[in-house]
Design a protein that fits this description.
single chain; alpha+beta; Jelly Rolls; Arc Repressor Mutant, subunit A; 2 domains; five-stranded antiparallel beta sheet; three-stranded antiparallel beta sheet; AraC family transcriptional regulator; transcription; HTH_AraC; transcription regulation
Length: about 280
């Protein structure tokens, strides 16, 4: 009989202070809107099946099974499936921590764990625990998250970064998430003050402090960004795009678009070599 004894030593590893907020499993069934949006927390997205692309603002990155996308707080993002290869993935929402890569100071990170099945198994175990909600499920998920984070840090030499110091106020984040999601609706400052119960002047001042734009300027920016994506990827008419992005009229949309980009929406579409169905 052989026997090897391995003593466990204490190691000086800084406490991560991470907290699991949510876990989900998603599959593209052709009904996604692929709208750029943000969160006040970090997201970890693990691709299980399918192929597509992940958008960080205007940056487009191809993704495939085994890819782990790390989305830092307040970063605009969305995902798109390739034709005939619908994406399936896990997503974790975690608070208190983000990651830094010396080679990528922007904070957004894409790495691959195709050859490490333990990463996928950690996601599966967390989802199982949350779905069954047995005794100790929340605690087990929290410990599994810590194991996952340590494996990510160890494999890709990332640096954990506390994020509590860069958080927006709760009210400003509420406004930002509301505008990101509901930009197509009729929104005024009164809408936002009713949402947050803040004084209108203080609300505008606080939001501008954190984003560099007033709420209405930020709203129009989101509408224009979405309009650009629709112009590039779809054959909707200008009137349809104006309506889908929340502008009060086609003429106001064209005027605002021209002021922002120095050309009309039709001219913008022509520069992206899409089919031309309307006259400028």
């Amino acid at each position: 009989m052989s026997n090897r004894h391995y003593p466990v030593k204490e190691t000086d590893i800084r406490k991560l202070n991470s907290k699991l907020l949510s876990i989900s499993y998603a599959k593209d069934e052709g009904d996604w809107t692929n709208i750029l949006h943000t969160h006040h927390f970090t997201e970890l997205l693990l691709v299980v099946d399918g192929k597509g692309s992940f958008l960080f603002g205007t940056e487009n990155h191809p993704i495939k099974p085994g890819d782990l996308v790390i989305i830092p707080p307040y970063t605009e993002h969305t995902e798109q499936s390739s034709k005939d290869t619908p994406l399936e993935y896990y997503v974790l929402g975690i608070d208190g921590i983000s990651f830094m890569d010396s080679a990528n100071p922007t904070g957004q990170i894409l790495c691959n764990f195709k050859n490490d099945p333990s990463i996928l198994e950690l996601f599966r175990q967390m989802l199982f625990e949350i779905r069954t909600l047995q005794y100790g499920s929340e605690a087990i998920c929290q410990h599994l998250l810590e194991i996952l984070i340590l494996k990510i840090i160890r494999t890709w030499k990332l640096v954990p970064v506390p994020i509590s110091s860069i958080k927006m106020t709760k009210e400003c984040m509420q406004i930002k998430e509301y505008l990101d999601t509901n930009y197509a609706q009729h929104i005024t400052l009164d809408t936002l003050t009713a949402l947050t119960h803040m004084n209108k002047y203080y609300m505008v001042h606080s939001f501008t402090k954190y984003t560099g734009l007033s709420p209405i300027q930020y709203l129009n920016q989101q509408r224009l960004k979405t309009a650009c994506r629709l112009l590039e990827s779809f054959n909707y008419s200008i009137a349809q795009i104006s309506s889908l992005t929340g502008f009060s009229s086609q003429s106001y949309f064209t005027q605002t678009f021209r002021k922002a980009y120095g050309m009309t929406p039709i001219k913008y579409r022509q520069t992206r070599s899409l089919p031309k169905k309307e006259k400028d």
